[in-house]
């Protein structure tokens, strides 16, 4: 019996049924085990360090000063109203920006930002975000890199 | 005739030497064409070759030996790569030190690393040259469409191998290239954000986390790239290469111009009269070719037009291999593979440049991360893959530029492609771009209208016009392919030589501001 006859006859013989069932279950098994394996590269919890970074005592930042902290990837602006933190991570592709007289420059693809992180030029899609500042019970200033706040959000630190 | 007695144990011991030799060299000494042909098709490594080849495929100008050189580079990369693995440690703490050890302490470690790096650069360069050869000689046409697609896969794999490779030293180049690549993987978010889509559509975040195994480059990223570079991608590349070589033979050997007599009738099936069905062919004469169920050659065009692969083809391949090795070793002897400072997550290099083959892309990325890093590359690979499906004008192939008309088409397309690419760089350098003219312009406008997207549209328009003017899809394909290659070359040149700190434009490195 040719394959064509078998397919068109409308009745499936026992041999064909077993063959199809075997092939189908093998395909399903391979499919589901592959799908299971593809889950592997995405862990349930990412092995990240805490997004909270310590900036030291608040007294370190005198009003009217701008402090670059590239290790913490943050620029601390201290004004009359309090302390603000601008992220130094370029919103384009994640390079750490440098500070100059006009604001911030990205070395990788030429994005430029104003003194408060506002977008001036280049491929970056957004301004440099301001980050939430808080204080630990012992008075240490903390910046949360994962928590963005409105620009010009000032934190009144208690010393 | 009575069956002879099986040899006794002692007889076997006495004839051990002779029988061992016979087991190793199963077809006798390669003293005749017949024995040599048997060696070629009886040996698993040699049988990727046909037993006989057409002399037109052996002309240096038919292929410039680019494919064989690529196989040679892959062999060199595998050997040197396995040797480098003896000392390399995939840890963010130790990787950089193991590169220093390879350079200063390990005997011949420096040379082996240099050869590995030069072979990888040559491989990227030669993959592009090989693609250009196959395109311009129309060797992608029926029945070779599938092999062109495998070729596209090998192009992507080669770039992926090169990229994952330069992450491993964990120097400044590696760290910031990884940061940028991960954010390019996340750049579909830029589009989703510009369109105001909810968080669920931000697939970029998933891609970035899959690549890094974290949200920032670190140990989990390095081990992923190590596994990709040393196991996963080489396995895929090896399989794709095997399929690529196999298809050359199944598709009738190298494409040959009209008029060159064909050995097995397959390459020019359209021009030769229908042959006999394989199972009816006289077994004795054509037994060698009738292993495959297909049309057999008719008697007028017999295999005598061809020459035996051993020695003619094997000799040519050995020559290409030796020249490739000579070039890699000479470059490795003269120029050390670079190693920047150890990775510093606080300070990127300024300028932070990728290796040359990604600098054209880096130039596009400096207009829009999503379009330059994701949109245009994906479009380019899809466009290249579609070439043999959209240009189906029958042509046996093997003629450069398909003749004089194609050569003229390529010339004008190259000129247009060059002028357009220079403009795409010169206008933003001199006059700025949308954000300078209209501060507060929405990001969507910049994603859609930037020098990279305009250049792509200009190239497409030019080649559509060329196709309409010549009424030929092949001419349209030549125009688009030539434009794109010239544009890629010019953007690569600009990214390599004309961009300095902060990705500003400088005519020469001597004008860079001092640090």
Task: Give a brief rundown of this model.
The complex is a heterodimer of chains A (159) and B (515). Chain A has 159 residues and is α+β, with helices and mostly antiparallel strands. In chain A, 19% of the residues lie in helices and 30% in strands.
Please characterize this protein's 3D structure:
The complex is a heterodimer of chains A (159) and B (515). The N and C termini of chain A lie far apart (92 Å). Chain A is built from 2 helices and 10 strands, in the order ααββββββββββ. Helices cover 19% and strands 30% of the residues of chain A. Chain B folds into 3 domains: 50-263 and 306-348, Cytochrome Bc1 Complex, Chain C, CATH 1.20.810.10; 273-305, no CATH class; 350-515, no CATH class. Chain B has a two-stranded antiparallel sheet. Chain B starts with 8 loop residues before the first helix and ends in an 18-residue tail after the last helix. Chains A and B meet through β8 of A and α10, α11, α12, α13 and α17 of B.
CATH class of the largest domain in chain B: Mainly Alpha
> Which chains share the greatest interface?
A-B, 29 and 47 residues
Instruction: Find the structural class of chain B using helix and strand composition.
Output: mainly alpha
β content of chain B, as a range? Answer: under 5%
Per-chain topology:
The complex is a heterodimer of chains A (159) and B (515).
Chain A: H1 3-8, H2 14-38, E1 52-57, E2 66-69, E3 74-78, E4 83-87, E5 98-100, E6 103-105, E7 112-113, E8 119-121, E9 130-135, E10 140-149
Chain B: H1 9-14, H2 16-24, H3 33-42, E1 52-53, H4 55-58, H5 60-63, H6 66-85, H7 95-104, H8 109-136, H9 145-167, H10 172-185, H11 188-194, H12 203-212, H13 219-250, H14 283-286, E2 307-308, H15 309-334, H16 359-365, H17 369-390, H18 404-431, H19 434-437, H20 443-448, H21 451-470, H22 473-497
Antiparallel strand pairs in B: 1-2
Helix pairs in contact in B: 6-8, 6-15, 7-8, 8-9, 8-15, 9-13, 9-17, 10-12, 16-17, 16-22, 18-21, 18-22, 21-22
């Amino acid at each position: 019996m040719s394959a064509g006859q078998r397919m068109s006859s409308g009745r499936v013989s026992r041999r064909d049924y077993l063959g199809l069932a075997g092939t189908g279950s093998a395909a399903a098994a391979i499919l589901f085990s592959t799908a299971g394996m593809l889950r592997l590269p995405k862990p349930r919890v990412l092995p990240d360090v805490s997004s909270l970074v310590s900036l030291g005592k608040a007294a370190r930042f005198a009003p009217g000063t701008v402090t670059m902290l590239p290790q913490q990837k943050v620029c601390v602006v201290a004004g009359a109203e309090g302390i603000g933190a601008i992220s130094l991570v370029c919103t384009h592709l994640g390079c750490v920006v440098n500070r100059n007289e006009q604001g911030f420059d990205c070395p990788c693809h030429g994005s430029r930002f104003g003194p408060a992180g506002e977008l001036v030029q280049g491929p970056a899609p957004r301004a440099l975000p301001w980050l939430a500042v808080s204080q630990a019970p012992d008075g240490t200033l903390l910046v949360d890199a994962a928590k963005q706040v409105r620009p010009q959000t000032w934190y009144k630190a208690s010393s | 005739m009575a069956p002879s007695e099986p040899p006794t144990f002692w007889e076997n011991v006495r004839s051990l030497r002779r029988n061992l030799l016979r087991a190793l060299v199963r077809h006798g000494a390669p003293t005749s064409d017949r024995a040599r042909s048997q060696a070629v098709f009886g040996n698993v490594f040699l049988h990727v070759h046909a037993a006989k080849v057409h002399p037109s495929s052996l002309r240096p100008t038919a292929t410039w030996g680019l494919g064989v050189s690529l196989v040679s580079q892959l062999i060199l990369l595998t050997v040197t790569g396995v040797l480098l693995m003896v000392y390399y440690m995939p840890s963010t703490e130790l990787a950089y030190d193991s590169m220093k050890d390879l350079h200063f302490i390990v005997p011949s470690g420096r040379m082996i690393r240099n050869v590995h790096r030069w072979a990888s650069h040559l491989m990227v360069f030669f993959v592009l040259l090989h693609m250009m050869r196959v395109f311009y000689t129309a060797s992608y046409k029926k029945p070779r469409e599938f092999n062109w697609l495998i070729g596209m896969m090998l192009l992507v794999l080669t770039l992926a191998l090169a990229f994952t490779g330069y992450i491993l030293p964990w120097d400044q180049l590696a760290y910031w290239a990884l940061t940028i690549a991960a954010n390019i993987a996340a750049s579909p978010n830029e589009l989703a954000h510009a369109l105001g889509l909810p968080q669920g559509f931000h697939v970029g975040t998933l891609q970035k986390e899959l690549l890094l195994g974290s949200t920032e480059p670190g140990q989990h990223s390095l081990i992923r790239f190590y596994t990709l570079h040393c196991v996963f991608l080489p396995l895929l590349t090896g399989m794709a290469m095997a399929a690529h070589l196999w298809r050359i033979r199944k598709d009738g050997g190298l494409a040959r111009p009209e008029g060159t007599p064909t050995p097995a009738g397959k390459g020019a099936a359209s021009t030769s009269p229908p042959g006999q069905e394989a199972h009816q062919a006289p077994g004795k004469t054509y037994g060698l070719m009738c292993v495959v169920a297909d049309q057999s050659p008719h008697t007028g065009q017999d295999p005598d037009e061809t020459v035996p692969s051993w020695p003619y083809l094997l000799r040519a391949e050995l020559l290409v291999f030796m020249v490739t090795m000579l070039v890699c070793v000479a470059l490795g002897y003269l120029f050390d593979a670079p190693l920047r400072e150890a990775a510093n997550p606080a300070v990127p290099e300024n300028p932070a440049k990728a290796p040359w083959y990604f600098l054209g892309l880096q130039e596009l990325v400096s207009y829009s991360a999503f379009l330059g890093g994701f949109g245009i590359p994906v479009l380019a690979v899809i466009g290249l893959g579609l070439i043999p499906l959209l240009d189906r004008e029958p042509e046996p192939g093997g003629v450069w530029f398909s003749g004089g008309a194609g050569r003229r088409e390529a010339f004008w397309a190259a000129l247009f492609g060059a002028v357009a690419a220079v403009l795409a760089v010169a206008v933003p350098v001199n006059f700025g771009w949308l954000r300078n003219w209209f501060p507060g312009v929405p990001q969507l406008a910049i994603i859609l209208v930037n020098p990279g997207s305009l250049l792509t549209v200009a190239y497409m328009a030019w080649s559509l016009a060329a196709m309409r003017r010549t009424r030929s899809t092949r001419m349209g394909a030549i125009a688009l392919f030539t434009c794109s290659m010239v544009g890629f070359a010019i953007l690569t040149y600009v990214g390599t030589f004309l961009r300095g700190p902060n990705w500003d434009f400088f005519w020469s490195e001597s004008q860079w501001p001092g640090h």
